[in-house]
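Before relying on records like the one below, remember that each one covers exactly one chain. Contacts with other chains, cofactors or solvent are not represented anywhere in the record.
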Amino acid sequence: MINKSKYTQEIIDSLISDHKQISNEGKPNVVDPALHGVPEVEAGSTTSDIPRLVIRGERYKLNKPNSGESQHLQAIGFNGKAKTITTSLPKEDVEPQAALTDYLNTTFQFSATPESIIELVGYFKLFLGEAFASLAERKGGLHGYKVSFTVGDTGAMLAYGGQRGTAFFSMPGSTCALIKDWESCYHLFHDILNAKITRWDGAVDVFDGIPSVNDAVNFYRSDLFNAGGNRPSCSVHGNWIEPDGAGRTFYVGKRKNGKLLRVYEKGKQLGDPQSKWVRWELELHNRDRIIPWDVILEPGKFVAAAYPCMSWVNDIQERIKTIKNTNKISYEHLTHYAQQAYGALINVMLEVEGSPEKVIERLKKPGIPSRLELADESIETVFADNLAQKQNQ
């Protein structure tokens, strides 16, 4: 049995009221059908209800109030077929940086020649940073592309060949943490490469755990994830019967439909069973959907607009705070298992080597564990709280 928290109970009624009020403010914004000489197309109609469309590319708007997106029907041929195209919209009264871009995939036209590859890497260096200034070829292709590369040590990947003359560029969360200037990134992909976004994730971290995964379930039960009146599917992962500290996840929607929300206990999944840290993460794909490039400039507005229950999103997200919390938990997790695995050996080494300094000299090696995602930040910055606590002891 999942109980409603005080936080949810206080806002859930107002969210429902606001949602109903906006949804009932008249008919959806449908283009006047009389101008086109066809019967009116109501929001929610299926393609089987759509009259024969004879003008290639002709569009009919199907905007749904309070859905965080606009929709239009677009003819795709001369035989009467059409499909619904969705465009994600921002919530204008929200702090633009109330979310973080945590995944970005793009495609763009690209003809691979030695000169064009050198030029592209030069663009990466100029607009994304020095860390993106080299390529290392991978074995095999990627997502149907014949040739693929890792980009420096950033975690980003580039691929091309075999997909209608396009290239694919992918930046997972660890790579996004390296981007210091999203306007520069926008200029590269939007203005220079004329790329389109095929996947974008926007994340909101709540370190005090409010709203929680339980709150997400209660929002769902109260129909506050309904976009334009349609209830999305939901699913769960983890131990919901007897929570064991390993973390739980609540999913809304499906990736194959182009829109998915993950609400999960991130601190617990990183290894701290007592952590309150919860992440709300929206994942959009370009399956019959247009993802505007403004998502990387104003991610908070798009996450807040995704569902009626997301109106609480309005606090500035700081990447360094996320990095610090991730590494604090990861550091404790790694040192715990290092003690379990090698603590007894270190006792013997102290006897054999004669001093802690000689033991450390024999054990240490260059580099940083991959689990510690420092991005461009120094150890002193990321672990400032730990170092200050040590000095005060």
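DSSP finds eleven helices and 14 strands in the chain.
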